[in-house]
Every structure is written in structure tokens, then in C-alpha cells.
Amino acid sequence: MSTTNLQQRLNDxxxxxxxxxxxxAMTEFYDKxxxxxxxANPPTVGQAANIEREKQFMSGVKEWKGFNVTASAVxxxxxxxxxxxxxxxxxxQAVHMEQVVVSKWNKDKxxxxxxxxxxxxx
Length: 122
Prior knowledge:
Radius of gyration: 14 Å
Distance between the termini: 34 Å
Strand content: over 45%
Strand order of the largest sheet: 2-1-6-5-4-3
Number of helices: 3
Oligomer: single chain
Order of helices and strands: HHEEHEEEE
Number of strands: 6
Helix content: 25-40%
Structural class: alpha+beta
């Protein structure tokens, strides 16, 4: 996949996330065997398992407030971006998270994604 096409796919993914369409993004952008990893934790493998994990995360979200990308880069079948997420948790607490995401792509689907963030602030 060319870097131009990969940049477009990444921008499309950002659009889904900005709208809070996290589960829809999983279906559109992730390979059926995709592995997703948070920090140094073992990865969750498989699209179905990752959709379940994201559903659990989203069940704690009352209102999606925002997704802001502060930096991004596209390389040879890999993308990087720094972002912040803002939402209101189901308990009413405002949550602000900052993270770096590294994604490895095969054709137009993510096959491995790793999130780096301060776990004490999650």
C-alpha cells in the first residue's frame, strides 16, 4: 500500500474515532486476525476478541467528547499518531487520556496495533 493511500486510510480512521464510532472502525479498519496491545500487556488477538474488548471500554463511556490528533506519521506499512481522547464516564467523571498509537498494516487493514500511555491516568 502506498504511503499516500495509507495516509488516507489513517485519516478515514480518525474520522470514525472523532465520531465515537469505535466498534464500526474495528470492522472497517482491522484485519480478522489483528492483535491489539496496551503498553507492555499481552496483546488481544482476533477482531472478534478486540471488538469485545472495545465494547467493554465503550460501556464505561457516557458521552464521547473528542479525539484530537497532535502528530502523525506514515511509513512503510506502519502509522504512528499522538492523540488525546476526552469523554464523560458513566459515573459522570470527565476523562482525558493522551496516548501514542503505532499501527502495522497489511494492505488496507491493521494487523497489529500498540497503545502507549500512562496507565496511572486511565
